[in-house]
Amino acid sequence: MHACDSVVKILVVEDDKDNLDILQELLDGEGYDIFAADNGADAVKLAQDEQPAVILMDLQMPDFPNSGLNNEAGLVATRDLRSDPRTQSIPIVALTGFDTEKAGAAIMAAGCDAIANKPYDFSSLLETIADLIRHR
């Protein structure tokens, strides 16, 4: 077993460069190996290819490269990941600025394992990621 085999990979799906940079800096600092997608289609492909330990999924982003923002793109990508045997067991954390009291049930029904509200509580987000990795 190589030393790099023990590196924990996280897929961050985020179309906002500032939010992506913040998450990458936070997660890099914790020793995670981060890779990113900025739309739903690329997120599904990367998850299939890379098999991350956890996916952080923005809900409002483009469905496909260069398409407009879609409030459901993250949920569509989540449902696609859940329907694929290669990715169905990867934990997914929804990243959202939506009112989760209203949208929470739909987010969880789509297949997300947890929700992180924007702006992020970083200690809570890191704890959620660690818990999902431990229980996978």
Commentary on this structure:
The strands form 2 sheets. This protein has a 5-stranded parallel sheet, with helices on both faces. A two-stranded antiparallel sheet has the order 4-5. It is globular, with a radius of gyration of 14 Å. Helix 2 packs parallel to helix 3. The protein is α/β, with parallel strands linked by helices and 136 residues long. 43% of the residues lie in helices and 21% in strands. It has one domain (3-135): Response regulator (Rossmann fold, 3-Layer(aba) Sandwich). The protein is built from 5 helices and 7 strands. The longest helix is centred in the last third of the chain and has 14 residues, at 122-135.
Q: State the share of residues found in helices, binned by percent.
A: 40-55%
- Principal-axis shape equals globular
Rg from alpha-carbon coordinates: 14 Å
Strand order of the largest sheet: 2-1-3-6-7
Fraction of residues in β-strands? 15-25%
Largest sheet: 5 strands, parallel
Our count of domains comes out at: 1
Distance between the termini: 20 Å
Q: What is the residue-mean pLDDT, rounded to a whole number?
A: 91
Number of helical regions:
5
The CATH homologous superfamily corresponds to Response regulator
Number of strands: 7
Q: Can you tell me the CATH architecture?
A: 3-Layer(aba) Sandwich
Low-confidence stretches: none
User: Could you give the order of the helices and strands?
Assistant: EHEHEEEHEHEH
**What is the CATH C level class, in words?**
Alpha Beta
CATH topology: Rossmann fold
Structural class per helix/strand content?
A: alpha/beta
